[in-house]
Design goal:
The protein has 287 residues and is an alpha+beta fold. The protein folds into two domains: 33-78 and 113-144, Cytochrome C3 (Alpha-Beta Complex); 163-285, Cytochrome C3, CATH 3.90.10. The protein has eight helices and seven strands. The strands form three sheets. A three-stranded antiparallel sheet has the order 5-6-7. A two-stranded antiparallel sheet has the order 1-4. The termini are far apart. Residues 15-24 have low confidence and may be disordered.
């Protein structure tokens, strides 16, 4: 009897565990990206002499998500830097300490100072190098750790970032022989948002390329179909072909150049670019 009850309990536990895993693994379609200022503090069980940091997330939106969130898988919610298993220590371990589970965990102090302050230092102008206190991106302690918390106002607190793939179709008014495009949005998160969304102000929801007053022209100008002609700047194909296609071509050129350099140096060729340059590479979805 006891054995039967025990087996039932074990089975229920396993079923619940599997259900939890299925729920946890269920893909999400989007995440909310904060625009407002974020106050960065160390966990309560740590003690520090420095003030908290008021971090302007919107100021850093011109950079790619991967620049800071380097271990993000691009399909899950973004975790904070001090998440368990990431930069969960306050200070670096002593040189003799054995790394946890064979993996060295960088301290949160090291992570912020190496990534944030390191990036700020790289951007210093010649004038700012002589007087770091006047730097736009602070490199002095008091520039980030300050008692004065700015009260910035933003139009929104966050915007929606779609994950995964997106289907891009031509406008209904347009005549096209091509199939729709399956655009892997998540694969482009190593690019800055404004590489594509060039008119985005960083303080509002991101609009699609064919939004009114952007590239909302379904047909080219009657005088010419040339996408390089200024009269077709709002033509939807101008946006996609001049930006997307041209970027893909540039990546292929870079790949060829690096392959040649590596071959001459006796090194293996770089990973092949997955950016298609042939029509069928992008236009592959039935409308």
């Amino acid at each position: 009897m006891k054995r039967s009850v025990l087996l039932i309990i074990i089975t229920l536990v396993m079923l619940l565990a599997n259900t939890s895993l299925l729920i946890a693994r269920e893909p999400i379609s989007s995440i909310e990206v904060p625009v407002k200022d974020i106050t960065i503090t160390v966990p309560s069980h740590f003690t520090t002499k420095k003030e908290p940091v008021s971090f302007s997330h919107s100021t850093h939106l011109p950079y790619s998500c991967i620049d800071c969130h380097h271990n993000w898988d691009r399909v899950s919610p973004i975790q904070g830097c001090m998440t368990s298993g990431c930069h969960e220590k306050l200070m670096p371990s002593p040189p003799t300490a054995t790394p946890s589970k064979g993996k060295k965990v960088m301290s949160i102090t090291g992570a912020y100072h190496k990534a944030c302050r390191g990036c700020h230092r790289e951007q210093l102008s010649e004038k700012e190098r002589k007087n770091p206190k006047e730097a736009a991106a602070p490199v002095e302690c008091a520039g980030c750790h300050t008692n004065t918390i700015p009260e910035n106002e933003y139009a929104i607190e966050s915007f929606t970032l779609p994950l995964g793939d997106m289907i891009l179709s031509a406008p209904e008014e347009a005549y096209t022989k091509r199939l729709a495009v399956n655009f892997p949005h998540g694969r482009h998160f190593d690019q800055e948002c404004q590489t594509c969304h060039h008119d985005w102000d960083g303080d509002s929801e991101i609009e699609g390329c064919m939004t009114a007053d952007c590239h909302d022209q379904a047909l080219p100008d009657e005088s010419t179909g040339d996408i390089n002609d200024p009269v077709n700047v709002q033509y939807y194909l101008t946006a996609y072909h001049k930006v997307c296609y041209q970027c893909h071509k540039d990546l292929k050129k870079q790949e060829k150049r690096l392959t040649k350099i590596n071959m001459e140096a006796g090194k293996p060729a770089p990973a092949e670019s997955k950016a298609p340059v042939k029509c069928g590479g992008c236009h592959n979805v039935e409308n």
